[in-house]
Amino acid sequence: MGDPIRLRRKYITPTQPWERARISEENKIVRQYGLKSKTELWKVEAELRKYRRLARQLIGAHGAEADKKKKILIEKIARIGLLPQTANLDNVLSLEVRDLLERRIQTLVYKKGIATSALDARQLITHGHVSYRGAVHTTPGTLIPKVDETKIVYVGPARVKIATEAEATPILAGQAPQAQKEEVQEVE
């Protein structure tokens, strides 16, 4: 266990801070997945970098110990749902940041239709309206295994559906809504 006073960052900032292409690509990803800031994206990149570094080291390694570590790495990535059980280390190297972001609980809540947008999903999770495995879950960055996708449930207060313009009829002073006019005509 590390020293609790000396906390370390879980990400690495880009070496070139003002690259236009990288910044625009990061902005697209942050908007698409409803991330709070780019540090969340950099954390996911660091985790992916860790898996890829392990795969590169294991590709060159030989022996019983290396085979055991290869199997452990593939099983871990398959448990998350990024790759099938039959994957190899080359498939680990082909993983992208979007693959990991698709496994976040925030993205899964949005994809299931519980939330109307990725930012709405983030708000529902942080406010404690989403349950995962029967317990309220408040961390939007948690990676959810593929087998547990069905265990994500909305547990907050009942949400009111907002009427569209076609459904909503304006009620002006002195006028009754269309539905009430028809009822009045039927009674007479």
From TrEMBL:
Matches recorded under InterPro entries: Ribosomal_uS4 (IPR022801), Ribosomal_uS4_arc (IPR022802), Ribosomal_uS4_CS (IPR018079), Ribosomal_uS4_euk/arc (IPR005710), Ribosomal_uS4_N (IPR001912), S4_RNA-bd (IPR002942), S4_RNA-bd_sf (IPR036986)
Record organism: Candidatus Naiadarchaeum limnaeum
Quaternary data: Part of the 30S ribosomal subunit. Contacts protein S5. The interaction surface between S4 and S5 is involved in control of translational fidelity.
Pfam families: S4 (PF01479)
UniProt cross-references to SMART domains, sorted A to Z: Ribosomal_S4
GO cellular component term of the entry, any: small ribosomal subunit
MF terms in GO: rRNA binding; structural constituent of ribosome
Keywords: Ribonucleoprotein, Ribosomal protein, RNA-binding, rRNA-binding
Single GO biological process annotation from the record: translation
Superkingdom per UniProt: Archaea
Domain Small ribosomal subunit protein uS4 N-terminal: 6-102
Similarity section: Belongs to the universal ribosomal protein uS4 family.
Function: With S5 and S12 plays an important role in translational accuracy. One of the primary rRNA binding proteins, it binds directly to 16S rRNA where it nucleates assembly of the body of the 30S subunit.
Protein name per UniProt: Small ribosomal subunit protein uS4
